[in-house]
Amino acid sequence: MPITPIYANSEQGKALIRKLQNRFQMAANDCRQKVEEIISAVRTNGDQALISYTTQFDAPALRIDQLRVTEEEFQLAEEEVSIAFKATLDKAIERIRVFHEHEKEDSWVVTRPDGTITGRLVHPVDSAGLYVPGGVGGKTPLVSSVLMNGIPAAIAGVERVVMLTPPGKDCRVNPALLVAARKVGIHEVYKSGSAWGIAALAFGTKTIAPVDVIVGPGNQYVTEAKKQVAGRVRIDMIAGPSEVLIIADETAKASFVAADMLAQAEHDPMALAMLVTTSAGLAQEVLDALQRLLPQLSRQQVAAKALADRGVIILVETVDQALELANSFAAEHLELMVADPYQAMTRIRHAGAIFLGNHSPEATGDYLAGPNHVLPTMGTARFSSALGVETFLKKSSLISYSREALLADADDIQAIANLEGLSAHALSVAIRVKKSA
């Protein structure tokens, strides 16, 4: 796990910074082509394509009539999970719900003295599809994904919320996922994964009706499938490998920094764990702590590879310089382990989520703090935000003119329409303001 600290003002440091600033990646050609083939197969063959892919990759014995999770499977799941798990789930749900309740939007109108009424009507989409990855063959259920996607959809008022997740080899969905789904109001769950599951949500099959919005994390095939169906449906975002940027000065605790880098690295060999620090001493202490803590991980090999291939430690002269880099990196997760994190926070413009101080590890945001953990990656926090209630809402503009108001605006409307060469637009106003109208 060799990470070599690099000074930001060195030629090597400048090259690394440019690389991190431009880390957005498109899917490889073979992935794009394969996903195109999968989507085409699902559009053409529907359920039969879903079963063909699912039996090949996930559950060899799954039948079409087993695609939808039954009421009996939901009931069995309730019996299989512990009371302690349910209590933890309830606590997480309450925290996430309270946070996202603040994101609700209301319709509004404004009026003018001439009788003009304009406004915006806010409505939820009719349906949403939540994709939940299988998690090591169903053995490590990503319960938090159910909560982070399902709760905002419920608060938005989406009438039909569907969950898709790959089944295990036993043709079952992990009971923890089913219990979580029920607790957030999801009763329609299907056993399907990867790009074929996304295609089913977008275009529909005999068993699975199409949806309006698709959200949820996944591998490169899921991400590429979401990208290819975007436009037909709304998607949450194009996500890349998970990432954390830790800004630390000499007041930071090295073991905390190292633990948070490892928490990011264990996600995936492509995960990006970055430290920018003003202290060369801290950088060395972090390296020592990484070596000490790594053997304790259940996913030691994954974390070791991620750190070896993509781990970054950059040395800067001042916290201000570190914060400038943070804005240019626009990281998914940003941790501020500095003497005054609240003052530092005021300098941050671009980050998916900001964690303040030594006792706010990223894991708090992943599970229990309340804010959503579905965040923009690969520098897209420059223009994108966390998933929220607004992901499941759409807005319609409202316009009502009185005759007096139209008379007052008629000349200006016609002037612009004629300038643009759209005479019918001008006529549609002129015909209404004739004296005989």
What would your notes on this structure say?
This protein has 437 residues and is an alpha/beta fold. It folds into three domains: 6-25 and 240-369, 3-Layer(aba) Sandwich (Rossmann fold), CATH 3.40.50; 29-105 and 128-235, Rossmann fold, CATH 3.40.50; 401-433, no CATH class. The protein is built from 17 helices and 14 strands. Helix 16 runs antiparallel to helix 17 (423-433). It is globular, with a radius of gyration of 26 Å. It starts with 5 loop residues before the first strand and ends with a helix. The relative contact order is 0.14.
Brief rundown of the structure:
Helix content is 45%, strand content 15%. The chain is an alpha/beta fold. The protein folds into three domains: 150 residues, Rossmann fold, CATH 3.40.50; 185 residues, Rossmann fold (3-Layer(aba) Sandwich), CATH 3.40.50; 33 residues, no CATH class.
